[in-house]
Fold each of these.
Amino acid sequence: MRLALVLLILVQFSWARELKVRLNQVTLTAVTLSKKAPISTRTIACLKKRTAGDARIKGSRARFTSFKDQRIALTAQLGRASPKQRKSIQKKLSLATKLERLGKKACKTATAPLTDNPTNKKQEFHSLARYKGTFGPIEAKILYNRFGFGGTQSQINDAVASGLEATVNKLLTPVSEPALENQISDMTCDTWLIDDPDAGSSNRTCDPTLVNDFSTTGFRQGVIHRFVHSQNPFFQKFAFFLMDERLATSYRVLDSCERHALKSYLNIVYQAAYSGNYLQYMRGLNNDHLMHFKWLDGGTNRGGIGNSPNENWAREFWELGTVGPTGLDGKPVYSDLDVAQAALAFTGWDITGQTINGEWTCLAGFVPLLHTSGPKRVFAGTPYQAIVSSAEDLLQATFRHPRTAEHLAEDIWKEFINPFATPAEILELAAIIRAHNYNLIPVMKQVMMSKAVFAQKSRGSLLKHPIELFIGLVKTTGFPFYYRSYNSLLNRLEQKAFDPDTVFGWDVRYLAGEQLQVEWWKVIIDYFINRDIEELFEEYNFSYYDRFIRTLYNQGQGTSESVIQRVTQEFGLELNAAQLGQLNQLMNYYLTTSGCPSQCGGLSYRLVRDQFDSHPESDESGFEWNGQRKIRSLIAAITELPEYRVK
């Protein structure tokens, strides 16, 4: 009897051994283990789309262990385990049993390829599990840089004092800003703020009954002003993500009679940013004058006899806004025939002009006679094939397709986490998105508190957009940037508000190229270095000395080293000894071409000692003291460091 039991246990353990299988026999999918926040998901492997288990790549083959075999082996262990061991084994057994049950259904549609990392083990930079490490100034800067255009020193201090979860909850809780909105409304009208003494006769009041009575320049200016000054930094950054990463549009396609479409479009973006409702966002864009009917030609997409449908919106609706062109396995998600059928579902819109309150106004409207009625087949020949007749039908069919969540997960991961996601991570984040029914606010909360965001490998792995460089500098220093210069600055950096090159938005890698870095340095000189220190103090009560030096001087720590340490910490930078040495040299020397002795050997420059002085006494100008000039140069040098250009 005892021998028979031993043989049975040996047989059971043999079933738990790894199977060597071909790589193309294993695909990945994700299952949801718990829908309680934070939602728990797990990437699983599927052998021939039938058997669920864990897998890893070993050479040219995959090593696969099914959950069924794990369950059998764990059951055998449980029968002969000590009371102390039973609890741990029972936990593993329950998980294996649950994964086996969930995998039976999930594996039927698994298509993602197996990746190098095992399905049952995550490195920190791949993990959406909750981060429980240190949350100090560096981590607070990472949070604000990635989810809020950078933070002020006050925000960083509050974040460190409050802790990660309280800070994330604060970032995700909207604050009413009537004063800021009044400012934005004012500058949208005529580009001027009402209390600007330089406005003169240019300051005017727009007629609220005339929907096109505002300045597009002022409108674009107002959007950046909100980005810079809002106390809702996360929602501003998320709005930017929606406008850039998920479909970009340009104001230049609008005629003067339809400028009002700019405001309508922005309302759709901000409703989505604050509510997190991504399904409603895409529904809104389906009916949007600027994005759909003008920018992507929906106003000329007409059905009926003698008309040729325009496929632009249908293609971008899928390619950028929802499913993406290819799946995680690299295969096309839809065909040209699918696009043609989708375009028919979107037909029926027209733009016409009429006089409203004495103003010629162009409006979009749905004309049933211009809509191609009847059924259209999309995603033909796939498990997600659907018969649709209208734009709403197509929207619902699209959001039932798993690639909609996966493509959204891909963009969220590469914009906010790191560039290292594999199909396994995308599947897990997509499962979280679906579990929240495309409400992205709780999804982003889980992302913001994840190990992956704060992992060492993730730090410095994402490039900043020029707008992030600029706003981050303003927020970190408290520099009083003149609001009417927003557009000209961003134009120089080729990131014009509401004027991208294509529907794909701005290519951040191009914007980080050598040519734009040279222009960034010129922008720093023109807008920051060349600003008159006396003027900054008199007009804005801003002083570099008061901002960065005076406290250290009062504490007896006014050395160049201590000032450098403070500034680099406030910028959230971790610099090496060589970089710190170069910055210290900058604070205590200057280059000159005058008085170069013969020993210079033909060189045109030499270093001259000019020791940093933190004493508050000024020279004759009353403002141009040594410390203030030096700190300005230090900040300019820091913005040129590679560490400043990443997040």
Note: The longest helix spans residues 83-106.
Amino acid sequence: MKKSLLFLFVFSLGPIFYAQEISIAANDSYTSCIGAVVDSGLSAADYGANENETITWCPEAPETVLNFYWVIFALDAGSTIALYDGDDVTAPLIDTYSGNDLQGLDVFSGADNVTGCITVVFTSGPGSSGNFGAYASCGFPCDRPFAIVNPTELQPHYACLNEPIYLEALSSTVAEGQELVSWVWDLGDGNIDDTSGPTLEHMYTSPGLYTMNLSLTDDNDCSNNNLLDYQILVSTNPDFSGTSSDVTMCVGDEIDLTGAVTGVLYNAEPSVDFGDGLFIPDDQGQCFSSQLTFTSFNAQDVVTDANIDIENLFMNFEHSYMGDITITFTCPSNQSIQVHQQGGGGTFLGIPVDNDALPDDPGIGFDYWWEPGATNGTWGDNAGGTLESGVYESVQPFTNLNGCPLNGTWEMEICDLFASDNGFAFDWSIEFAPELYPEAISFTPTFGPECDSTYWEGPSIVDDGGDCNVVTISPQFIGEESYVYRGQNDFGCYYDRTIDVTVVGTIPTVTADQNQYCGSPVTMMANVGDVNAEDCDFIWSPADYLTDTDVQSPTIDGLETTTEYTVSVSYSTNGLTCLSEASIDIETCEITIPDVFTPDNLNVGGNNTWRVEGLEAFDGVQCYIFNRWGTVVYESIDFGSSAGWDPGVDGAAEGVYFYVLEIPCNEGNQIVTEQGDLTTEFDCDGMVPFTGTINLFR
């Protein structure tokens, strides 16, 4: 059943007109910017034998250029179409065509054609039959822009996860006198950007191989048809297995930190994006198409022999009038194969909803294949009733596709040249020979082994190991320290792992109540800071002259020579035992005794005392004073700076007296005496005597 209906297409098509097919046999002239010129058989039949028809088609004012897009051009050998660039056959001949010469091509009136008209002369021979049809539109076919992205950069572009990449298409070209008005970036990750213009910043959130394409449109509504397939490899996150983890260590110890980073394989099977469902309304003003974009083949691969390299072309489809439509598949190089060319009349495809009240409802699609080796005829050869699901021959040979690139955008185009009836294409695909598909897409980022690619950073590294991957650390302070292992791969991506080092133990210091032993005991103390001393074990060495060797605060007595004492502190925490040491030097005495006696002039009148200064450090100094007859007039067994002889008290007479000082001194100590300009040193060895005279005046 034929119907005259108006359908709303799911895409924005602008105003919808009641376009119509114009038979070349029924019109001498026609003026319009829409519609289609078709053969005399219209949708029901082919043209006949011995036809000689002419039509002059002119553009509507103010348009001055007419364009014919030849959807069907299948003339037999005895038929021709001659096109003249003007309003009659006296105009310049554009060319004469036969066979499939004009299939899928545009022909438009020239710049010198002031009428803008094209005159079409069709001639068929005896016994001829065939089909032709062309959409009419006004204006020149597009001089398409050409997309160029990042022209100075070699592909692929290496990118890092969640870091911006920059794409620019400022070098793209456009026809003279035109301007680009639209940039639509397909980033390959499901994101479409139509707002950024010619420059774009984008981040990828998953590793992989992404294929970016750019669609340009100029102010003449012309779009580019070059497929960039600009490849972007996004690095996988690396594997840090083998890198040291958080550690607890003793202060002052040395340990090694190991860094290890390797790239992770990205592996993905090749894939294609399949066409979406496509509604085919009854609109003779244009064809409707759907695209598949292949990006997984090797860049140089082409169809060498389509009869071998292409397994089939497939479509799941329904339509209520097979005779209305043409179906064409076009490859990225614009080569095409027409698999159905009208014919078949009112044969159903699938199970359409053939109801005037439900024009927009899809029916049930049948699976149809076209294969190079099919021998059961075309759709038209099998017309009648409902065309069964199955494999059919193509109207045109598959060899039309020899030389087509595998990668790129393949297009399925359905044209409805005649009024009434509609259909739906639910799915379609192209199946290539299995051996053409590439191996799985894979890549592994790599890291260099030296310090310019991988290295440690931290506060207490004492040895970088030469390659910065295994470093030695020796913290000297208690607390927390952080170390970062960094790596840069061949994508230029930086990664790092941070570990925390907990430094425990104690940093002891040793103090003493005095740093010289001068006969009196010296007490030392091992200070352990904030650590509880009860959790520590102490060992002192050497053991000489110590009262204890395993206490925090031992005592020295009887020291005979200057000695360095060392304490070893053992502290246990978190299952870790830390050892640390500290030392102190305890010196033996060097005491200077000046030869100064006060007062300078002693007299028998009393109230003046003879003293010797500088004896504070000695215990048990013995002092004896004799008169000239050898009689002891003064004796003290604990003579020090506070003691002295008062001649007046003793009733001493005028004259010369003699004194003897006996100073006790341990071995190793020294006594230095100063007598005028003379300094004398004595090594201690028991009681050291000093003698001299005292003059007593009246």
Note: The radius of gyration is 55 Å.
